[in-house]
Write a structure and sequence with these properties.
heterodimer; A: mainly alpha; two-stranded antiparallel ribbon; 8 helices; B: alpha+beta; five-stranded antiparallel beta sheet; extended
């Protein structure tokens, strides 16, 4: 693990270990909130904030936490950052906070964050944990952006609320409903695996 | 024993630190959050009472809040009822304005809903649904009209349904009728009073 360069540490979150397309973590919020690009961005930023802060803190205090209470400690740390993000959004971006609804408090149980705390930050230096969290965050945001763009364009004919498809386009309502989330995510994962296989065959 | 003590100390101190942190975050944001909520309702009240510049809460019970709206001189222009209908998925929170005599609906506005996008969610669209509530006669119970079946002009107490979203339309109608009945009863019982001069 220590042989990885900083760039490798960062970029694995983008592709090789992408939290959505490869690790398949945090699916609940990923499926639920990607019905509009703005929600995807907001959720991506909220998760990134929590992920980066908690990875940093967990790696900072990793030597003081007894093994037996580590999960409880991580959850308290994560929950604190989630509450901060939730209150901040409610105070400064009320429409976004309303659109995301219960999915912001639910970041507490988002497996990406606990997964990175347990699998990486609790065993790595502060700098490496920070790089890892940044990579995972960017990977998560990119995945949400792709999902929510596809769903908003096909489901509403708009992107960030601006009409991109003409009035001839009859929106596929199913794409902004839950089945659309599963369809889009399924296709995204399939495409990611296919590309990966092609790359492996070539090398 | 040493391990237990260490576990206890570590977990308690993490709890204490995060408790203190959250407390300060709460102090920092709570006024803003409360004022956002207040502003949202205030704006909605002013929207459903034409000409109103400010509002005042005059009656409150669960899911049924009554506001009065007044202009700059303090003349009461009408009242607004903030209530909820039993929608297809979840409660539909909405607000509607009446004139001070409770005989006419000014307009209706949906605050929060989780109806099916593209079908029931059209209750938030002015074009498809909300426009039909404007100026309805509230002295008698309202009724729904299916625009595809009945082509003649709307009666003063009729509202067009949304094609394909009968459940959501009917939920709104039932709730508005119940709210009208409730407000008239409250007025008879003298449970609320409109403050200031009546400028209608």
């Amino acid at each position: 693990m220590a042989t990885r360069t900083s760039w490798e540490e960062f970029s694995k979150g983008l592709w090789l270990d992408n939290p959505v397309s490869r690790q398949l973590l945090g699916m609940c919020s990923t499926l639920a909130i990607t019905n509009a690009v703005i929600n995807g961005i907001a959720m991506g930023l909220a998760v990134s904030f929590v992920l980066i802060c908690s990875s940093l803190l967990v790696s900072l205090v990793r030597k003081f936490i007894p093994n037996q209470v580590r999960i409880a400690s991580y959850i308290v740390i994560i929950a604190s950052f989630v509450t901060i993000a939730d209150r901040f959004m409610a105070a400064y971006f009320p429409p976004l906070s309303k659109a995301l609804g219960p999915y912001v408090p639910l970041i507490v149980v988002n497996c990406i964050i606990l997964g990175r705390a347990e699998a990486f930050a609790s065993k790595s230096t502060v700098a490496r944990s920070l790089i890892d969290a940044l990579g995972m965050s960017v990977g998560y945001i990119v995945a949400l952006l792709i999902l929510s763009s596809v769903r908003e364009i096909l489901g509403s004919g708009t992107i960030l609320g601006y009409r991109v498809l003409g009035t001839w386009f009859e929106p596929w309502i199913i794409m902004i409903l839950p089945p659309g989330a599963f369809i889009t995510l399924g296709i995204l994962i399939a495409v990611a695996f296919q590309i990966e296989r092609k790359v492996k065959q070539r090398s | 024993m040493r391990l237990y003590r260490r576990m206890l100390i570590v977990l308690s101190s993490i709890g204490l630190v995060s408790g203190a942190l959250l407390m300060s975050v709460n102090i920092f944001t709570k006024d803003r959050i409360a004022s956002n909520r207040q502003k949202e309702i205030e704006e909605a009240v002013i929207k459903v009472i034409p000409g109103a510049k400010s509002s005042l809460r005059i009656y409150e019970e669960k899911d049924f809040t009554v506001y009065q709206g007044q202009d700059e001189q303090g003349n009461v222009l009408g009242i607004a009822i903030n209530t909820a209908a039993g929608g297809f998925q979840d409660k539909i929170f909405y607000i509607f304005g009446l004139n001070a005599q409770l005989t006419k609906i000014n307009s209706l506005f949906v605050l929060d809903q989780k109806e099916t996008p593209g079908l029931g969610a059209k209750i938030t669209s002015a074009e498809a649904f909300l426009q039909f509530w404007e100026g309805r006669d509230a002295s008698q119970p309202l009724a729904l009209r299916k625009p595809a079946v009945k082509k003649d002009a709307l009666a003063p107490n009729e509202v067009n349904t949304i094609t394909g979203a009968t459940i959501s339309s009917r939920a709104m109608l039932t709730s508005v009728n119940a709210a009208l009945e409730r407000i008239k009863k409250l007025k008879q019982e003298g449970k609320f009073s409109i403050e200031g001069s009546n400028g209608d």
